Please model this.
Amino acid sequence: MSAMAIGKLAVIASTKVQTIRYYEEIGLIRPFTRTEGGHRLYGPEDVRRLKFIRHARELGFGIEEIRELLQLSDNPQTSCSAADTIARSHLEQVEIRLTKLRALRKELKRMVEECGHGHVNQCRVIEVLSDHRHCASDH
Amino acid sequence: MSAMAIGKLAVIASTKVQTIRYYEEIGLIRPFTRTEGGHRLYGPEDVRRLKFIRHARELGFGIEEIRELLQLSDNPQTSCSAADTIARSHLEQVEIRLTKLRALRKELKRMVEECGHGHVNQCRVIEVLSDHRHCASDH
DNA sequence: GATACAATCTCTAGCCACTAGAGCTTCAAG
DNA sequence: CTTGAAGCTCTAGTGGCTAGAGATTGTATC
Model:
């Protein structure tokens, strides 16, 4: 009785219909059955699975990482260490991105603060972009 | 005498040859001439231009933003305010990304710190991913 | 039961910013 | 003059969707 069409699943999991079909194409999720006419039908388990996927995507995990995590959660007996490894390495990547982004912000801030508000030929924005040596920090 | 082939330009500007050809395709940079055989030839002005592009890319500017910035730097008489606007709005985007990334890191940290190191059925990593409500902060 | 219309179906192509490779031609050193 | 690196064009692939065309199905109303 709880079977639903793709549109409803999309609303529940805050996804787009096309995205669900895309996830099916790449083998992340499948409707448990179809109607005679070919419409996909999903159950509560599919809702959980799709929410899992979307949440992991929000946290920045890539599709292949998610595929692994799904496999793990499908097999509750397996050791937690694989999931831990994936999450840890993902965290590392985030730390790296954060560091880069902070350096970037610093540079951009300096750039706009020093903009002379005159003509382009005195503009620090253009000048800084023209020559890497004007940068205070690495990036 | 300072004319160089695409390979040398690529080395000087720390780019790949294909990337330069791609930039040409989308109209960011053009060789000032070609050899009879069709090989691209670049001069010092092209080096500066490509470095400008690469540097802006490193700072996270999109191609269309760079296209505008290039136009500005090509016309030193124009007002600086357009460049300023582009840089400022870019800075804003960076701030937003930073905020999101910090929330993300927090969540990931909590996730891996609470991982029980047992089996997946008690694993916080999987559990947190399974349900958004386990998250401490928005993302 | 007929009709209207929303929802779904498949298939193709596009986005961004490159990157990689096939198969051919040109250039420069010896 | 030969050789081999470097260049050429063209096509296709990456990730993670998103959008649209044109056909079909499902469902609510009369």
Remarks:
- The CA atoms of residues 7 and 109 of chain B lie 44 Å apart.
- The mean pLDDT of chain B is 85.
- Chain B is about 60% helix and 5% strand.
- Residues 81-113 of chain B form the longest helix (33 residues).
